[in-house]
Design a protein that fits this description.
With about 140 residues, the chain is mainly alpha-helical. The protein contains 8 helices and 2 strands, in the order H-H-H-H-H-H-E-E-H-H.
Length: about 140
């Protein structure tokens, strides 16, 4: 199964229309259908992986265990993540500890948003991994 087929399968399993995936990711209508080779440019593959909450490696290799997906985040988890994200945003934008910089240059708002997006995906993923690791039977999503 190539990457395009896998993306379509994941969307079908999660009841996500392909058109919504394309719209939410900022792609043109019919973009995924037009990829006949079954390969995405790397930047778009990352966008799709973040949207579907899977790793890029899974979309490419199809070998990642889907067990992590069995441990759904509840409202409390989402509130905790939102609180953490707000604290991180305040620290990055307040400049009370000095300006946020990378490689000697100040980070602008657009770059801060990119960093925060990556951190949020990471926190959600870690929350699921921790649920599985520390209390797998209590937190398993009942089907």
């Amino acid at each position: 199964m190539n990457t395009v087929e896998l993306v379509k399968k994941i969307c079908k399993d999660r009841n996500i229309p392909i058109s919504r995936l394309e719209r939410d990711c900022g792609f043109a209508n019919g973009y995924i259908r037009k990829l006949k080779e079954g390969k995405f440019p790397s930047d778009r593959l990352l966008t799709i992986a973040n949207y579907l909450d899977v790793t890029v490696d899974y979309l490419i290799n199809e070998e990642e265990s889907q067990q992590i997906g069995q441990y759904a985040l509840n409202d409390r988890d989402n509130k905790d993540i939102a609180k953490d994200m707000e604290a991180i945003r305040k620290k990055l934008t307040s400049k009370s500890d000095g300006p946020a910089s990378f490689d000697g240059e100040n980070i602008d708002e657009a770059e801060i948003d990119l960093v925060l997006g990556s951190i949020e995906v990471m926190l959600k993923r870690l929350k699921r991994i921790n649920k599985e690791k520390y209390n797998p039977n209590k937190n398993k999503d009942k089907k």
